[in-house]
């Protein structure tokens, strides 16, 4: 066996391992996505995005990104956030809204199992 053939096989093996690891990593990330579904009887906003009353799924796409999806057929939007360590807050999720001039603005999201509250970052 010559050096060129051995080198080619080694590179092919490393690429195969990298691809397999990437696929497994994507599966683990999708499986670890955590979220809550909530019905809001009022309209609210997130970073100037208005949401009417309805059912929404709030999912942590990562520790820094929140997905909000209208369960009843609407679209999905992503918003930046930051984790705040608060310890164990119970087995039920929660949303915190700020009331300003009669309008509600989503401020924080708690997803059970994360032991953290996630604060939404203001839009730029």
Protein model, in words:
- The protein has about 120 residues and is an alpha+beta fold.
- It has two domains: about 30 residues; about 90 residues.
- The chain contains one helix and nine strands.
- The strands form two sheets. The protein has a seven-stranded antiparallel beta sheet with strand order 1-4-5-6-9-8-7. The protein has a two-stranded antiparallel sheet with strand order 2-3.
- Strand 4 and strand 5 form a beta hairpin.
- The radius of gyration is 21 Å and the shape is globular.
- The relative contact order is 0.17.
What's the helix and strand layout?
Elements: H1 3-32, E1 34-40, E2 44-46, E3 49-51, E4 54-62, E5 65-70, E6 76-85, E7 94-100, E8 103-110, E9 116-120
Antiparallel strand pairs: 1-4, 2-3, 4-5, 5-6, 6-9, 7-8, 8-9
Question: What is the structure about, briefly put?
Answer:
This protein is α+β, with helices and mostly antiparallel strands.
Question: What fraction, in percent, of the residue positions are helical?
Answer: 10-25%
Main sheet record: 7 strands, antiparallel
Separate helix tally: 1
Terminus-to-terminus distance: 60 Å
Number of strands: 9
Summary keywords:
124 residues; 2 domains; seven-stranded antiparallel sheet; two-stranded antiparallel sheet
